[in-house]
Amino acid sequence: MPNRKNYWTQQRPDGKWESKREGASRASKVADTQAEAWDYSRPASRAAKPT
Q1: Which residues of the chain are under the pLDDT cut of 50?
Q2: pTM above 0.85, yes or no
C-alpha cells in the first residue's frame, strides 16, 4: 500500500519537473524547475494525513 504522505519529484520527458504523490498516476504539480517542484512537495507532504 502506498504511503500517501510521500511525494516524488522527477523530471518529465519534456524537461519539466513534476511532483507526484506516491501511488498516483498523475502529477499533483508540474513546474519548470526542480526547486519549484520541491517547494510544492515539502508543504504538501507535511500537510498530508498519515495513512
Answers
A1: none
A2: no
